[in-house]
Amino acid sequence: MAGGEQVLHSLDVAKTQWYHFTAIVVAGMGFFTDAYDLFCISLVTKLLGRIYYRLDGSPTPGTLPPHVSASVNGVAFVGTLSGQLFFGWLGDKLGRKRVYGMTLMLMVLCSIASALSFGHTPTSVMATLCFFRFWLGFGIGGDYPLSATIMSEYANKKTRGAFIAAVFAMQGFGIMTGGLVAIVVSASFRAGFPAPAYNENPVASTPPQADFVWRIILMLGALPAALTYYWRTKMPETARYTALVANNAKQAAADMSKVLQVEMAAEDQGGGGNEGRRAFGLFSGEFARRHGLHLLGTSATWFLLDIAFYSQNLFQKDIFSAVGWIPKAATMSALEELFRIARAQTLIALCGTVPGYWFTVALIDVLGRFKIQAVGFLMMTVFMLGLAVPYQHWTAPGNHVGFVVLYGLTFFFANFGPNSTTFIVPAEIFPARLRATCHGISAASGKLGAIVGSFGFLYLAQPQSPDPAKTEHGYPAGIGVRNSLFLLAGCNLLGLLFTFLVPESKGKSLEEMSGEEAAGPNRTVPLV
To answer: What are the GO BP annotations of this UniProt entry (predicted)?
Structure first.
């Protein structure tokens, strides 16, 4: 058995060890920060509207104008998309480890900087916030391909799916922490600086100290990421990158034996056992022949899933007001509103979002990726139609419990389904020297879907009536929520069809999936 092959085989059969769990936490911190930030910004935008865009004499509290709201929320998506492509490419060029600390430091610095957004006018504060949120997104984007690739290359083949899913499931903790931080900070300030409701006293309903609240919430997101920075810099380069891309089997064996309790002896053979491997680039005919459909499958499924996944913001307002969790904005003070929305979103996250992630972790290496993804898309289609067909029934008073249950089930099957598997599979099926790049391309397609889901549907879901009183302030007439739900169900059905382009990787080694040759004197793995 050649040196390179022996190292990779040792990794594939290595028992699950303490280091694997350390790697999950260290790699998962990027996703924690990502989820924390995305969760909190939706809470914070309401408060920003009250602080910076209050209109004297208006019967309702200030809200961010549509273009400002789209910028504050969307600029991080654009940053994430750019970061996924750039750091994915860089991770294959320079190695995973050399780029890995960079993305985390970018996240930490930009989380703090976005909380320190300065300016004398509302426009300058928002412009500064948008600038730092772009670079925060850029760092978060880099974490997608790098964390997935690093975890897949460290893991053994038996539990690899669960390990990558666990990294992604750190998003669940990020969402819960974001909710809890917002609840605690807003409750503390509300107790310390009591304020009347907006309809009692519009000016006093937003105390000056509210400006600290959103800054503290955004800044605290940097803390967990900063704590794991030291361990990130101490992680060795993955053996697969060292052996298959850098062609140094001896170094790969030395690195891995430091962190994993496995015997690895690799005689340095110059080529690391890879002399016979023909290299091909991302834009070559050879790549298109072997992996072209795979890349189309992973990118299209992620794109379609994120359209549906990120459009959930549309319905949360309907749900909260229908269930009576959140009264009309004018009947609350600024901090009261923040507290109530944070509480409601945290409850929904706890019931619908977080359990789905952990179902995936538990079952992915039992059921396989394909089944989980296909069933997830199918169930999302069914539940979206269940919301859309009798939409008038659900919006009638007294029927909101059924609406909430169906809504929760939709997102349970997103997380115990394509939201997890679209992240896992691209880290398993492409060759080592293109793995992070291909994952980055797939993830960037997903973020493109997120932009469509968040903003396209924000406009589409406005009522069809041209009467401006029925649409949200500043938005043109759309196709209505019911028709939007039908469109989303169609996206999920398309996602199910594209799932058939993606191969099953359960229980197979990465080299088996990517068709990489590990040639040795005794054995040759064919290039298929």
So the answer is: phosphate ion transport
